[in-house]
Amino acid sequence: MIKKAVALYSGGLDSLLAAAIIKKQGIEVIGLHCILPSVDPAINPDSLKASQLASQINLPLVFYRCDDEYANVIAHPKHGYGKNANPCIDCKIFFLQKAKEYMEKLNASFVITGEVVGQRPMSQYKSMLKHIEKECGLEGLLVRPLSAKLLPPTYPEQEGIVDRNKLYAIAGRSRDKQFELAQEFGITQFQSPAGGCFLTMPQLASRVKDVIAHPPFNALDLFLANVGRHYRLHEHAKIIVARNENECTILQRYKQTADFFVEPSFKGPVIYGKGTILQSDYPVLAQMLARYGKPAPDENSVALFIMGQHTATLTADNPVDDTTLSKMRI
Ligand code: SF4
Q1: Contact between residue 10 and residue 31 where contact means Cβ atoms under 8 Å apart
Q2: For the domain bounded by 4-184, which CATH number is listed?
Q3: Which of 35, 104, 215, 289 is deepest in the core (most CB within 10 A)?
Q4: SS3 of residue 112 by DSSP
């Protein structure tokens, strides 16, 4: 076996420690950072916080940006969802399958994760760890340095590539041992373990589920679930209304991917639309902009673009009311 491993790296303390423990044994480790769809596709991965944190342990990184393949996993999770729109088991399996792909591509011989037995509900209990390992085709090749002594020896341990005696037997939710190890490895900064990703957030779950319920969709639609106010006009059309200048810039950036797009001539938000817009929807679009923008009586025109073509000019002089809004809110 080659003394080279791919570490599934999130930027959290456990993944930093797992990589550091194996590196300390003189094994080459490359971190694989999977970038979730909640990160703007326009962002350079090197500028991400997780990338900067990896430098504390001199961990070189490769990046996988969650794409439509991942979107498909979110839409049809074999093991179901957690409390919100988070299919944690399928997500974990998917990331490990990616780690396996990179392991083969980078000519490494095993994969490392920062998983700890019994630390989290659902995906990290001992039997589930075993199941996940099998499903992702990494049986015997998945080293979990923080809990390794509580698990059967892996091939790298059996073959003496990894010294099992220098691995740990951490279990449960307490983080004391990890903080102690962080000091030992000079790790002073890491991302908070508490959170969970955007799919675990109740306020975003309904948006993500709405995206999934209205195919076709892609990874960009999952990113846009994090942007603006979302309203469903009817079964065939949804709109995203920017809340501030930054969101206007983001929605403008992806204008070409919208099915329809609305821009006011006055100070106000843009609207990004998905689906089929009907002529009977035009008034509510103008009313949205009258509500969230600041149209002057003499300057209240709104341009509607369908598939990038300017198709209508509307007048925004009548703000949409609260009842209509709450009925449409996703
Ligand atoms: S919290 Fe999000 S990123 Fe983490 S395993 Fe669950 S779905 Fe995947």
Answers
A1: no
A2: 3.40.50.620
A3: 289
A4: strand
Q: Is 86 in the pocket of ligand 1 (CB under 6 A)?
A: yes
How far does the centroid of ligand 1 lie from the alpha carbon of residue 196, in Å? 6
DSSP track, 153-178:
PPHHHHTTSS-GGGS---BSS--HHH
Residue ranges of domains in the chain: 4-184, 227-328
**Coil, helix or strand for 100?**
helix
Cα dist from 274 to 220, 255, 260, 318, whole Å: 12, 11, 7, 23
The finding on whether 258 has its CB within 6 A of some atom of ligand 1 is no
* pLDDT tens, residue by residue, 210-219: 999 999 999 9
- Exposure string for 25-52, b = 16+ CB within 10 A, e = fewer: bebebbbbbbbbbbbeeeeeeeebebbe
pLDDT tens digit string along 253-280?
Answer: 999 999 999 999 999 999 999 999 999 9
CA 68 to chain centroid, in Å, comes to 12
